[in-house]
Amino acid sequence: MGFFASSARTGLFVAAALVSVTICTSAVAETVLTVNDVDVDSDVLDIYIESRLQKPAAQATAEERDVLEEELTDIYLLTTQARTAELAKEPRVKAQLELQKRGTLAQVTAADFLSRNQATEEEILAQYSEQIETAPPLQFKARHILVESQDEATSLIKELNDGANFAELAKSNSTGPSGPNGGDLGWFSPNQMVPEFSDAVAALKDGEYTKTPVQTQFGWHVILREDSRDAEAPTLDAVRDVIKQQIEQGKLQDYLAQLRELNKS
Description:
The protein is of the alpha+beta class. It has helices spanning about 15-20, 40-55, 60-80, 80-85, 90-115, 120-135, 150-160, 165-175, 195-205, 235-265; strands at about 30-35, 40, 140-145, 185-190, 215, 220-230. The chain contains 10 helices and 6 strands. Strand 1 (about 30-35) and strand 2 (about 40) form a beta hairpin.
């Protein structure tokens, strides 16, 4: 789905994991444990269960709850010792506790912002139309051989010029994950690859391989463009969730940019 490949956003510390944070008003918490005269309420236990199991606390089995309740009891046993109060005053411990608190608050604040600034249908339709219009017109089917040095790549090109089989050379020489499959990358849109690679593929004709090595951040490539086809635009329903996330993360980035500017003034 190369039409809607997500773009990296520098400084975006609130990504998909934060979007999943939910803010809700739950029933009044009740005490489920008392450890060294400190009451532990049901919300604390539920959050601990969810953090350990990566699923809602309500889905935990009785056995899982028992095990995690014991773990949480141990945490409270350790943190209610007299020595713990002394350790909590150490500068690095205080800094770590501060970061953990700020991180949690940043997550719930970001999640709250996103819940109040969801993408509208009009915004989704507008971005869908824009990306359809600017999407690359072609998709390519290609193979590549990835090696560490330019000399290695040049040597492989000489072998190809002498009639060697591209897939066999990839199997025996490529350091990339596609090597065992003969360097097969399948079908892809140009914006799914790094620019140097995509530009080299686009410059070839179907059935041609690069006559000079292509360098990217991953190493040196020899590329065979096997085929090309008109790119088919995905339906709106197929990419709605991706577009929605892009729009909402864009809103969050704009909000953070505003906060940064206010902080400078």
